[in-house]
Amino acid sequence: MAEPVIAARDLSLVFTTRDGPVQALSQVNLDIAPGEFISLIGPSGCGKTTLLRVIADLERATGGRIAVNGRTPEQARLARDYGYVFQAPALFPWRTILGNVMLPLEVMGIPRAERAARAKAQLALVNLAGFERKFPWQLSGGMQQRASIARALAFAPKLLLMDEPFGALDEIVRDHLNEQLLKLWAATGKTVVFVTHSIPEAVFLSTRIVVMSPRPGRITDIIDCDLGPDRPLEIRETPAFLRIAQRVREGLRAGHSYDV
Amino acid sequence: MSRAVLPVLTVCAALVALWYLGAVWMNWQLVADAQARAGAAPDLAEMVRLTLAQPRPLLPAPHQVVAELWRSTMTLPVTSRRSLVHHAWVTLSAALAGFGMGVAFGVALAVAIVHIRALERSVMPWIVASQAVPVLALAPIVIVALGALGLEGLLPKAIIAAYLCFFPVAIGMVKGFRAPDAMALDLMRTWSASRGQVFWTLRLPASLPFLFAGLKVAMAAAVVGAIVAELPAGAQAGLGARLLAGSYFGQTLQIWSALAMAALLSATLVGLLGLAERAVARRMGPRA
Ligand SMILES: Nc1ncnc2c1ncn2[C@@H]1O[C@H](COP(=O)(O)OP(=O)(O)OP(=O)(O)O)[C@@H](O)[C@H]1O
Ligand SMILES: [Mg+2]
Hints:
The structure holds two protein chains of two kinds.
Chain A: E1 6-17, E2 20-32, E3 37-41, H1 48-55, E4 63-68, H2 73-78, E5 82-85, H3 97-107, H4 112-125, H5 141-153, E6 159-163, H6 171-188, E7 191-196, H7 199-205, E8 208-213, E9 218-224, H8 239-255
Parallel strand pairs in A: 3-7, 3-8, 5-6, 6-7
Antiparallel strand pairs in A: 1-2, 1-4, 8-9
Helix pairs in contact in A: 3-4, 3-5, 4-5, 7-8
Chain B: H1 2-37, H2 44-51, H3 62-74, H4 84-115, H5 117-132, H6 135-148, H7 154-177, H8 182-190, H9 195-230, H10 239-248, H11 252-283
Helix pairs in contact in B: 1-2, 3-11, 4-5, 4-7, 4-9, 4-10, 6-7, 7-9, 9-11, 10-11
The complex binds adenosine-5'-triphosphate (ATP) and magnesium ion (MG).
């Protein structure tokens, strides 16, 4: 196996809050190989965002080890190894769509002419050609989220971290974006770590699904999702798909310790 | 548009009417005494006419102020020491110089406070305390101290104006520079943006609405500061000097026209800032 993009060993993270310590991650062990599409799924508060933020060096683990491309998360961040898509588009309202997508390139000191060309290409990839000069408020929520994906892709990172990027969108738009994301992933061979609440979304997109459970946040199951690279939306009706979805559901249920 | 104009005009008309009533009432005794001394017994209409036409009324009527404004701005050469344009320019130049200095200082202070954690706790209380000192008490001290150093004319006045200016700008800009939410800051961090890049591409644009709010308050304060600073300096020139001279010699018309001029000046400057704000807002994502 090639060197893993992400290797976590006994990773744990405790937030110190005013009401005492909160164990957000506990004993997380996970290897992610290049080109994988990994979904993190689990109930609210199980540490999905926290795990993603540790990978991105937006949060520091308090125990265990984690390597990103064989380096520390900080080194990986400084080397601009990954693109991060937040739950909300977080576009700057005073910049045009093109200006927003060019922003990371600007920060990274890429020449002006190249910036525009690359940003335009990314916008075309997410079907936003022709909207370059619009401002964020002139776009629908789904279009804004697509722009934020284009922004994360603009500097061609090999690793894409996505935190519930389609969580706020309606089902039709979500299906459409899922298809586009899958095509993009197949075409570029990027490694994707994708947080979601939706079982069908996770099964549809992933090569492996990581099931997490709360209090403390830990991995309870890792499910292979070998549906092949070619996945039309109709695949969600097939027995193979439903079997995997059923396994994920069981994994989630087992992790739940609701005393109801 | 016209629906908004009518209520505004009504209120204005009511205020002017009140002012006229006030002028009649305030000046009544003055006129009555003078008429008694002269042995005259004017009727009511004549009394009212006289109360609104006194050369040194307690409260001048609006048309008297307007006439005096016209006379002292339009009928005299602007180089004349009696021209209100000359005095307004003296005050305006000090106010604008002070505004520039105060805004620069206020923004610089805010930049420092936002970037150096320790400054917030150590400097902020002093900034707030500085504004608790009445400028009326401070102005003579500064003018005299700077005068002893040989500094006279525009600069000392500008310093007083700047002293009043920097505060609203600094407070507003600290808030403005902190306006970006955690997600936007995290986003910049994922790109390993430098502090300078975060400042220029995120904090500064996000702070612009706060900047203009601060600038408007500062502009009005700068005019007040420049006028107050003219009072202790022997009152040679400027709107403040006109106010002081007017009160020495009981020239209420002169006082009121200087006050009106100061108000016009402030309103115009704040209005210009409003236009600049609109122009900037249009460039930064025109909405509807
Ligand atoms: N900055 C923080 N300070 C303190 N506690 C935090 C912080 N961030 C997260 N937590 C806690 O850590 C736990 C995991 O949070 P996290 O945001 O990773 O959950 P999640 O799985 O992403 O949930 P959701 O699906 O609702 O987004 C929660 O109990 C949360 O309250
Ligand atoms: Mg989350």
